[in-house]
Design brief:
- With 495 residues, the protein is an alpha/beta fold.
- It contains nine helices and 24 strands.
- Bound molecules: alpha-L-arabinofuranose.
Amino acid sequence: MEDVRITIKPDAQIGTISPRLYGHFAEHLGRCCYDGLFLKPTSASVPNQKGFRTDVLEALKNMPMPLLRWPGGCYADHYHWRDGIGPVEQRPRRLGMSCGETVEDDNRLGTHEFLWFCEQTGAEPYLAGNVGTGSPQEMCDWLEYCNSALDTTLTRLRRANGAEKPFGVKLWGVGNENWGCGGNFDARDYALEYRRYATMLRHVDPHVELVACGFDEPWNRTLLQTLRNHVDTIDHLSVHRYWHGDGGELDPSERVSYRLFTEAALTEAFIQQTADIIRVELGERRRVGVALDEWGIWHPEARLQFNPSTRGGPYEQVSTLRDALAAALVLEGFHRQCRVLSLANLAQVVNVLHAPIQTRGAAMWRTPTYHVFQLHAPHIGATALEVEVQASLLPHSDELRCVTATASLDKEDNLTLTILNLHLDQSATVHFGGIEGRVLSKAQLLTADSPLAHNSAERPNAVEPQPIKATESTQGGYLVNLPKHSMATFRLKRK
Ligand code: AHR
């Protein structure tokens, strides 16, 4: 049993935890969009609203999901937005391509459908434009179609397709992974291409926020140096971070679990390094945010070639409590980096990769990662606070503690504390203080007998939150016993 002290510092405020840090990502890949979010014509018996699965829609509303990126991923650099508007039966059939997958794509889920779904779920839309096979004109047209209030042929078309008012989409990505699947550019060539796109897009709508494709340090430096005299063209720099844990999705070895946690924790350093590069290259001339618009665990089993008897489609994986704890660790880092991290999107929202929701036929279940997001919901929009944690080091780690925590204060003066116990064999007796004048109003725990526990069609609620007891400590604050491999959220209100 580990003895841990946590001190919240309500006066040490880091910054606002933007709702955009709790974003998600829907790509036309595997069963994420089609058969996950949106029904295929062959699965019409599942209850739906305008083709979107009702169960998935409701679950995402309640998670919640403040931001949603679409349509890719690698898919975006093959996507032509005009294919996805107008009467569904007249839409062209194309090849849907991403990550080695090539499928028939009937374009049923297009701009209007996606933006309707965002409105229903309360998500801010984030559209990824096509640089690989598109043109500045094509992307300018998409922007005009979505955002212009003037009377033009394109906006008449939008109205004819059912949207009287402009959609007002703020966030636009100029390509995706253009150092790889998005055209195999080198950094300077992409920077010049980006500059052209961004300049023309700003003419169409000067109020949009544009996301440039970043990558590793040399790429990011070259990109920013090339854009140095045109820094007003860039608002966010996109980077991606997947981690693998050096083992399989259900590999029980301690080494694999701790490796996974360590890699997840390093996401914060990656954000800091990217922010440092931006600071050094642009100085005071422009504040450009780090857009971690794809992140999560990518297990070796999640690949193009899959076994249909064990999983529903390509790039799917079993999503365990261990994965969820790794996601929670990443969210803690997001809070600490909220001054430089401008948005983040977990990859992906349904079925594919580190999904909070999975489906099989008519069945739908929330993964432990869904519950982690829901248990973090009170932090969204709140002010991140500094937290001091005194705990021993996690086995196999030189830096990561067994117990970690994050705290925030919302506009109604409620304090939220989230604590993780990453140790696989030891529970922790945690004393948390720094909460003078506040009383515990709600406490919830997420854990299971095994870190590999997961939900499934057969056992959708095997891992789900439950209440946890905390007792007032004689030294002030509260005492709580946190089981091994668990996380808990404590809500504290003014007395
Ligand atoms: O999320 C799956 C893929 O990973 C995306 O299409 C691509 O951007 C990344 O390589």
